[in-house]
Amino acid sequence: MRHGEAAVGYPDPERQLTARGHAEAEQAAEWLGRQVGRDVRLYVSPYVRARQTALPVARALGIEPEVLPMITPEDSPYAVCDWLMDKAQDGAIVMISHMPLVGALTGLLVEGRPEHGPGFPTAAVAELESDVWAAGCASLLRFVAPGNSV
């Protein structure tokens, strides 16, 4: 999932959600709460806007978010893919991060190439499924964003 709409500002890690961003996060959280089972872990970027997005998601899922420092905007989708290989056996994962990482990671997992990933509108969610979290091994089950089924 990508974080909700954020205000312009500096430094980038401290940017906060706009009123629209908070509303998007609430809408996505409600949708996720209806879709995701209870055996789930929530990982979130340390950036303020991602942590703000995670709060309603965590409430909807009845869990605490865990900060994962390696999912900031410019982090490597390959490193996250390697990390997923170790974590995938732990059940479902919801990850809240940023563009370009969420698009590149989705492209890597589904198409085998990070440059083939989709653009994520704010608060968009890509639902992936895989037996092995390696490049090109996942299936994109659903892609939703506020205003289109969320």
Structure description:
- Pfam families: His_Phos_1 (PF00300).
- This is Phosphohistidine phosphatase SixA.
- One of its GO terms (molecular function) is protein histidine phosphatase activity.
- One of its GO terms (cellular component) is cytoplasm.
- There is one protein chain.
- The chain has helices spanning 19-35, 48-61, 77-87, 101-111; strands at residues 40-44, 65-67, 92-96, 125-129, 139-144.
- With 150 residues, it is α/β, with parallel strands linked by helices.
- A 3-stranded parallel sheet has the order 2-1-3, covered by helices on one side. Strands 4-5 form a two-stranded antiparallel sheet.
- The radius of gyration is 14 Å and the shape is globular.
Question: Could you give a short description of this structure?
Answer:
This protein has 150 residues and is of the alpha/beta class. Helices cover 35% and strands 16% of the residues.
Major sheet characteristics:
3 strands, parallel
Low-confidence stretches: none
Structural class by SSE content: alpha/beta
> What string, H for helix and E for strand, traces the elements in order?
HEHEHEHEE
Number of strands: 5
In what range is the share of β-strand residues?
Answer: 15-25%
Helix content: 25-40%
With strands numbered from the N-terminus, the spatial order across the biggest sheet is 2-1-3
